[in-house]
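User: Sequence recovery, please. Input:
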């Protein structure tokens, strides 16, 4: 496929709106297909209706994912990361397979051909998720090592220090309050009513007014007292997070914080797109091939018990002595809800694993009598909630925001000798069961979903994940699942993502302020 033809194909599907599904729709369609599975044609005739929907919907989701990777709202050039290149190639091939090489499932023969395509996409979707995890590790390493191919000049330490030295006098780096950092590129509300970009190249310390205050073209005098500035377009529409509002949480300066938040939001979106596409494909393949649907009525306590048991086994194997006790407290043990069992297992598995590690590391002089980790399950009218409490020393407030960063990792860059997912032996077992079977083979840290991804899984159907930490004591993680079957997939589409994002521009570019659309 030529580059132009490929781009036209991507944009043709990416311009359409994806159809957001609810848990109820997944569950109802799955039960109907399972009832028809024992028919003479193995359920293919019943599957034809949903297959038609998948044939229309999957190209839209995959097309949006490819365009999102190509447009790259993050300020870091992820296209230079081999794993993200491979991810784009995989999705390009997936879209071509669906749109160009697989006819619409209108007959028994074409329906069977479409099912074979879904099986191929299923094996590739697991590879894509692994590529995404490897790419994040590689990107984190490139940023820490200041790889000039990936990290723009205005986010490198020398530029940050230069900004601090150039802008004389005390100032803050908030993009919404107090003194703006005029030596960093920044959006502001001009008198014309338009959003415009400051030009750091016009800032000179030599330009001094008669009253002794430095002057900046476009802003006038630097304010001598704190004042309320019009919100930065980046922060008001993209980085609406505590890290931009609380000066204690600023990492280095406002520019770097906005870059981190833009990157986080992009990968939140990318991970959600991968998660939804994978669920849509695997749910239908699981029904046809294994007689199971992935969205089920579950007993959360049973899944929590297994997740805690498996995490404890990993901890014991890693340290070589008995793990801290995980005490499960469930006043309403028989609670049921509609959810994806694999998703709940992976979230609780990660949270308990983190709590075990923190507890052992904080009390490393002990080999026994560790503080008990509590896993509490509660059920209300709207939510099924879990609290994982540990006494692992807690987290300082200044580091809490970094917990949700995709660029923080406990493992090094992807090993060049590590095979790409496309070369890994394909597994035939149902993915959700497979993960629960192989989870105890994972290391204690450096693998798995990680807290940013766990939070995205929780949010995908209306839940959430929150952490409350007390430095010197421990951390409480609160996981909420919505009990509503009408909980719907996230609403942030590609167009909203690209319109609300504004990668911070290179400081040395234009010599005059540019107008923002």
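Assistant: Recovered sequence (517 residues):
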């Amino acid at each position: 496929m030529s580059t132009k033809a490929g781009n036209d194909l991507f944009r043709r599907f990416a311009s359409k709106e994806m159809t957001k599904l609810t848990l109820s729709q997944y569950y109802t369609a799955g039960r109907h297909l399972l009832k028809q599975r024992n028919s003479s044609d193995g359920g293919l005739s019943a599957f034809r209706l949903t297959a038609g929907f998948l044939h229309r919907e999957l190209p839209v989701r995959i097309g949006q994912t490819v365009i999102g990777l190509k447009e790259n709202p993050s300020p870091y050039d992820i296209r230079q990361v081999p794993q993200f290149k491979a991810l784009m190639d995989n999705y390009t091939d997936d879209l071509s397979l669906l749109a160009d090489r697989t006819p619409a499932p209108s007959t028994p023969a074409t329906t069977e051909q479409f099912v074979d395509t879904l099986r191929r996409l299923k094996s590739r979707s697991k590879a894509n998720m692994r590529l995404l995890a490897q790419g994040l590790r590689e990107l984190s390493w490139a940023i820490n090592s200041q790889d000039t191919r990936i990290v723009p000049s205005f986010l490198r330490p020398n530029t940050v220090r230069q900004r601090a030295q150039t802008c004389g006098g005390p100032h803050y780096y908030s993009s919404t309050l107090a003194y703006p950092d005029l030596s960093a590129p920044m959006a502001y509300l001009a008198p014309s009513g338009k959003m415009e970009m400051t030009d750091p190249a016009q800032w000179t310390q030599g330009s001094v007014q008669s009253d002794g205050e430095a002057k900046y073209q476009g802003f006038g005098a630097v304010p001598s007292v704190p004042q309320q500035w019009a919100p930065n377009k980046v922060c008001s529409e993209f980085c609406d997070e505590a890290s931009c509002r609380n000066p204690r949480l600023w990492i280095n300066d406002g520019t770097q914080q906005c870059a981190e938040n833009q990157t986080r939001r992009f990968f939140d979106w990318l991970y959600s797109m991968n998660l939804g596409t994978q669920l849509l494909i695997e749910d239908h393949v699981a029904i046809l091939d294994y007689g199971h649907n992935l969205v089920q009525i579950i007993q959360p306590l049973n899944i929590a018990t297994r997740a805690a048991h498996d995490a404890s086994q990993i901890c014991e194997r890693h340290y070589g002595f008995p793990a801290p006790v995980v005490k499960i407290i469930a006043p309403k043990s028989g609670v049921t809800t509609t959810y994806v069992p694999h998703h709940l297992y992976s979230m609780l598995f990660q949270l308990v694993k983190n709590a075990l590690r923190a507890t052992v590391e904080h009390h490393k002089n002990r080999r026994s009598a560790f503080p008990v980790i509590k896993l509490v399950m509660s059920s209300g009218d709207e939510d099924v909630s879990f609290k994982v409490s540990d006494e692992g020393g807690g987290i300082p407030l200044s580091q809490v925001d970094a917990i949700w960063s995709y660029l923080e990792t406990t493992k090094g860059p992807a090993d060049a000798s590590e095979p790409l997912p496309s070369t890994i032996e394909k597994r035939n077992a149902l993915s959700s069961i497979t993960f629960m079977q192989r989870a105890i083979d994972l290391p204690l840290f450096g693998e798995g979903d990680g807290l940013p991804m766990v939070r995205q899984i929780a949010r995908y159907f209306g839940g959430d994940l929150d952490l409350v930490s007390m430095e010197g004591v421990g951390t409480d993680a609160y996981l909420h699942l919505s009990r509503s079957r009408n909980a719907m997939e996230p609403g942030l589409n590609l167009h909203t993502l690209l319109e609300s994002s504004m990668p911070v521009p290179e400081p040395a570019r234009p010599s005059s302020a540019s107008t923002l659309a």
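Residues 167-185, 200-252, 410-438, 502-517 have pLDDT under 50 and may be disordered.
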